Amino acid sequence: MKFGRSKEQKQSTAVDLPGRSDTITIVPLSGARIPARVIETGAGTMLVAITVPIDPLSNAQLQALLIEFHGPNGRVQLTGTASFADPSDPDVLRIDDPRAIDTVQEREYVRIQSARPALVFGGPEMIQINSHTVDISGGGFLLSGADALSVSDRVHFQLELPEGELPITGSGRVVRIDPHGHRGIVFDDIKELDRRRLIRYIFDCQRVELRRGLEVGRHGD
Question: Domain 2-104 belongs to what topology?
Answer without folding.
Answer: Pnp Oxidase; Chain A (2.30.110)
